[in-house]
Amino acid sequence: MTTKCEDCPLRPLSQFLRFSAEELAFMERFKTGEMQVQPGTHLLTQGTRSPQLFTTLSGLGLRHKTLVDGSRQVISFVMPGDFLGLQAGVMGEMGHSVEAVTDMTLCVFNRADIWSLFKTLPERGYALAHLAAIEEQFLGDALATVGQRPAYDKIAWAMARYFHRAKAVGIAKGNTCPLPFRQQHLADALGLSLVHTNKVLGRLRKEGVLVWTDDVLTIRDMDRLEQIAALDDGPPPRPLI
Amino acid sequence: MTTKCEDCPLRPLSQFLRFSAEELAFMERFKTGEMQVQPGTHLLTQGTRSPQLFTTLSGLGLRHKTLVDGSRQVISFVMPGDFLGLQAGVMGEMGHSVEAVTDMTLCVFNRADIWSLFKTLPERGYALAHLAAIEEQFLGDALATVGQRPAYDKIAWAMARYFHRAKAVGIAKGNTCPLPFRQQHLADALGLSLVHTNKVLGRLRKEGVLVWTDDVLTIRDMDRLEQIAALDDGPPPRPLI
DNA sequence: CGCGAACTTGATGTAACTCAAGGCGAGTGG
DNA sequence: CCACTCGCCTTGAGTTACATCAAGTTCGCG
């Protein structure tokens, strides 16, 4: 039983741009099916061409990369609404892998159809570029955090980001949201060791900032968290000549 | 005196995809002018909307981000052929700044025209998405390097990447290329201190891997460099059922 | 000649790493 | 139902790859 785009539970969320009737009809045709996967499933693999692209309907996952020495870099956490496989779509090859962490439901598209998307409905092509730009911005922030900040700030930043995204896609309830990852995943995302990550999480817990237990994240002091997590300033003061 | 797209010195490079006559004509119209800037010029500023987008014709620059605590993250080095301002173009706001490091010549486009690009010539919209995907892949690699690898490997990786790109855009000569940045820039790109960066560069010099003096990078032992710089494996072995 | 920008080098400090061990809950099998 | 394993989290002790501090050198420039 597949979901019609018209009935997509994500579309009404304020986080997403509105669809025109025409776009809706187009996406309905573009979508070739729906897919259910279990935790641990590899959806896309780094260095390979995938014939399929996905949009996450529900569930959570991970984008990650394995290096020659065997270490892993988690690129980002995958949430409902995320488009998976842009690189495969336009370049042919993926630079990272994508893996399901919970049960996931995904819309499936054909890689080969992506060109027709640009051609027949430029609005959708533009939307794809928009998504790519958002991803680029996120990766810039992640790079800055991993490169420049101490462990305490890194973890606060990651948790704050995650929580806000969770809220935006409607999986948060009050000041809590599901966080079905392992501490090792977070460590791999931020370039920290598991042990150190654990200690810093303990500190944030003791300080009453946040608690992460049983796959649930609870924000105890949002103001404080935001303050620690803050990455860059707004626009600089305007010059006067 | 502006360069016609037809005469663009970059276009023939093997690194770039071919243009159709139609695309060429379109880009000629899309381009609103040419711009010359001096070292130190801020082309785009994080957190602002820019009415102009650019493609680098010649010269070198930096994408970077300034954090609340004043530290800087260099996102990437800007080379001829790089498109600047995608984020401003499709999202409105830049997540990082772009600054000229040498004299630069740039093609100038109007932000407002970007939508017409998708609409009237989808091939060009697709090209833009392609660029964005390449950037995303690069940022993933950078994140993995900064997050997981020791200083020695980071620097080797950065230098190898830089040299290959330089070669691809035709600014390398033999085993040398211009590298008009400061050690501080490299340090800020890799999340290292200036002092440590300096020491590791010294080590690579002593070991006969590479030399960076007077704004010129010389690769002394490419095989060794590649070996240190290697980031990830190719595609994994294929499973058999 | 004095000054600032960039590079270099040595000494000292520390944030985060590794190693090692133990606890706890869930599953499994005798 | 208990013994065992396994995955995950937690904590302490010792180590190290970096950072920071502090000079000193070189070079171009006003």
TrEMBL record, chains A, B:
<dbReference type="Pfam" id="PF00027">
    <property type="entry name" value="cNMP_binding"/>
</dbReference>
<dbReference type="InterPro" id="IPR012318">
    <property type="entry name" value="HTH_CRP"/>
</dbReference>
<dbReference type="InterPro" id="IPR000595">
    <property type="entry name" value="cNMP-bd_dom"/>
</dbReference>
<dbReference type="Pfam" id="PF13545">
    <property type="entry name" value="HTH_Crp_2"/>
</dbReference>
<protein>
    <submittedName>
        <fullName>Crp/Fnr family transcriptional regulator</fullName>
    </submittedName>
</protein>
<feature type="domain" description="HTH crp-type">
    <location>
        <begin position="153"/>
        <end position="223"/>
    </location>
</feature>
